[in-house]
Design a protein that fits this description.
The chain is α+β, with helices and mostly antiparallel strands and 119 residues long. It has a domain of 83 residues: 3-Layer(aba) Sandwich (Glutaredoxin), CATH 3.40.30. Helices cover 35% and strands 18% of the residues. It contains four helices and four strands. A four-stranded mixed sheet has the order 2-1-3-4, with helices on one face. Strand 1, helix 2 and strand 2 form a beta-alpha-beta unit. It is globular and about 35 Å long.
């Protein structure tokens, strides 16, 4: 099953990739970690703003409740919502979709390195 199934259109790929089986298998893992907490209206607004990028780039969003982990609370609790892509903080307080889109495109064009978990 292609990673973009259910999206309105296939994801935008870097110029160096063609849309074939090999290209799909070599696509980087585009997972945005979204640190939030229940009842956060800015977090809800950020989630709504992510929808077009989720569709356009087959971006996966993994929401993490900062209240579930003391480290997440310490690192992100006063800045939520916080978006982390490829180990880099790409927004805090409010979603900057332009900056996030530039980060996504840079991730697509960058050589792939082994992924490290930010748990």
């Amino acid at each position: 099953m292609p990673p973009y199934e259910g999206c309105e259109r296939p994801p935008i790929l870097p110029r160096s990739m063609s849309l074939n089986r090999g290209a799909l298998e070599s696509m980087p893992d585009l997972t945005l970690l979204l640190y939030s907490r229940p009842g956060c209206h800015l977090c809800e607004t950020a989630k709504e703003g992510l929808a077009p990028l989720v569709t356009r780039y087959a971006l996966r969003v993994e929401e993490r409740n900062v209240e579930d982990n003391p480290r997440w609370e310490r690192d992100y609790g006063m800045e939520i919502p916080v978006g982390v892509l490829a180990g880099r903080k790409v927004f805090k307080f409010r979603l900057d979709s332009g900056r996030l889109e530039r980060s996504i495109r840079a991730s697509l064009d960058a050589p792939q390195r082994p992924r490290t978990d930010t748990t």
